[in-house]
Amino acid sequence: MLSRVAERTYWAARYLERIENTVRLISVYDKLMSDLPTSVGIGWYNLITINSAEEAFDERYKVQDERNVIKFLLSEGNNPCSVVSNLKFARENLRTTRDVVPAQSWVMINELNMFVIENLQQGINRSQRFHFLNGIIKSCQQIQGLLMGTMPRDAVWSFMGLGRNIERADMTTRLLDAGVRAQLQVMDDAEAINSQQIIWGQVLRSLDADQSYRRTVRASVKSRLVARYIIEDTAFPRSITYCLAAVKGSLENLPHHKPVVSTVKKIQQARLSEIDYSDLGVPMKDFLNDMQLDIAEIHSSISKNWFTNQQG
């Protein structure tokens, strides 16, 4: 298999996953803003910080308000992490690998692109945002379902699995970070009596994890239990532990995989054994930041092992 084909299918999967998860991140904050007391000072700029995009945002916008943050994350062409930019990248990678991916995936990504372009204003305006964001999530899941149901389990599938689960693990850390940051901002608010339950309930819903959490944990929504579930559960497909195991499984189906598998094992054994759930403040933020660096290390190892160029 040519390295450029491997790289493009890997990145096609990453960009598709990133589109969906960026929308999930916006959605969880949108709902938190509606559900939490107005006295709670949660700012939209947190989404920029969570995405490590402060410099790019500050170069483009002077005001850190809701409208500018949403425009930056949805429609800003100069932001490589925006939904519009990632759609462009995903389409290009699928276009150039149409001989190895289902033909219908090219049709569906173009339909998603048209939906986003024609309805961007709905996403920017709060009154219609829910419909717009849900439409994107639904389309991404339809494309993922097509790929899962029709692709042979060969090297192309393995590289797409790597891209999907690396991106998913990374964004799960960012969704957790959103919860931690929100929790830190409501701790001293006397009016926010039930705020922690609201925050962590929305984090679960942003991952479509609320039902599986109740079935597995069999407890009410509590911050440390939610964090442990999203990080450690071995059966939930968006948990960090599950994603890393899936990455390892995809790697083992590829030739010359031992150096990269060694990197994944090191992270599984070291990082995931040091978590302190008693304090979901700064220590958890530090853990999530370290986990993001670990995921970047896995990506770097994959790139060095199989790819010729660097996307991102």
TrEMBL record:
What top-level branch of life does the organism fall under? Answer: Bacteria
Signal peptide extent:
none
Q: DUF403 domain spans which residues? A: 1-307
Q: Which Pfam families match?
A: Alpha-E
Cross-referenced InterPro entries: ATP-dep_Glu-Cys_Ligase-2 (IPR051680), DUF403 (IPR007296)
This chain's protein is named DUF403 domain-containing protein
Its source organism is: Oleispira antarctica RB-8
